[in-house]
Amino acid sequence: MTKTYISSTEVCFNVCVAGKWTHVSFVPLTLGGSYFTTSDTLLQDAIESHRFFGTLVTLGRVDDTPPLPTADTEEHADDQPQSITFSSINDARAWLAERFGTSYSKIRHKEQIECAAQEQGYVITFNTPGSNSP
């Protein structure tokens, strides 16, 4: 289950997930405010138990589509690039860092993320909130 959290300001904070501190940085919106989307249930629980939840941060949208593919379902025999859709840049960055050890400093922008994924044989697309994409 993918959850989108929204805030009326640009916000970032740290949460403890499974004994490790994780930095949560919301994506700023042009007309003000910000959002953060994740399908990680441990991160969702940590955000919802943070002191900012309910005041600065609220739950915006819940999407019941299947979670991101795991290593077991990602295996493919042919050399065609596999397409993966993410709901946010942060999720794509985390996936690249966890799966391939890509440094966060090398995947700061959307173009860098797409290039890094292409080097690993994947095509990344983004499904942002408010878009008409399925």
What's the quick description here?
With 134 residues, the chain is of the alpha+beta class. 22% of the residues lie in helices and 31% in strands.
Question: What descriptive keywords fit this protein?
Answer:
four-stranded antiparallel beta sheet, two-stranded antiparallel ribbon, 134 residues, alpha+beta, 22% helix
How would you summarize the topology of this molecule?
Blueprint: E1 2-7, E2 12-17, E3 20-25, E4 27-28, E5 34-38, H1 41-48, E6 58-63, E7 82-86, H2 89-100, H3 110-119, E8 122-126
Parallel strand pairs: 7-8
Antiparallel strand pairs: 1-5, 1-6, 2-3, 4-5
Helix pairs in contact: 2-3
Instruction: Give me the secondary-structure category.
Output: alpha+beta
One letter per element, helices H and strands E, the order comes to EEEEEHEEHHE
Rg, nearest Å: 15 Å
State the assembly state of the protein chains. single chain
Tally of DSSP helical segments? 3
**Helical residues, percent:** 10-25%
* Strand arrangement, major sheet: 4-5-1-6
Largest sheet: 4 strands, antiparallel
Spatial gap, N to C terminus: 15 Å
Low-confidence stretches: none
Give the percentage of residues in beta strands.
25-35%
Record field, number of beta strands: 8
* Shape designation: globular
Chain-averaged pLDDT: 81
